[in-house]
Amino acid sequence: MKQQILVIYKSVTGFTEQYARWIAKELDCQAMDLREVSAKTMAGYQLVIFGGRIHAGVVDGLKQVKKLFEKSTAGKLVVFATGATPNTAGEMIEETWKNNFTPAELEHIPHFYLQSGCGMKKCRWVIN
Predict the structure, then answer these.
(1) Entry pTM
(2) 10 CB contacts (<8 Å, ≥6 apart)?
C-alpha cells in the first residue's frame, strides 16, 4: 500500500527547508532532503511535493526531481519555489515558471511561489 504524501526539499540557506518542514507538519507527513531521495523512494507515495529555491531563474533541483518522478510510480507532483523576490512581482515569477516547465507541465503540475529571503551568511558568494 502506498503512503500518502512525501515532501522533498533542496535548500541552501534554510528557507526552503523550513517551508518544507512546515508543510510536512501541517500534512502530517515526512520531509526529506533531495540528497536522500531516489525514484524508488518516491514510488511509495501518492503525492510528492518538492520545494527548491529560485537561483538565476532556475528552481534549484527541479530538473532532477522531474527525472526521478518520471522513473517512479508516484501519483502526482506538486512544486513550490522560494526566493527573495516579492510576491507582488507576478510577471517575474510567471517568467520563472515558464523557464522551468514545459507548457504541458505548467498545465498539469501545480506550482506555487513562497517568498522567503536571502541568507547572506549561508550563500556561496564568489568575490574577486
Answers:
(1) 0.87
(2) 16, 33, 34, 50, 51, 52, 53, 60, 61
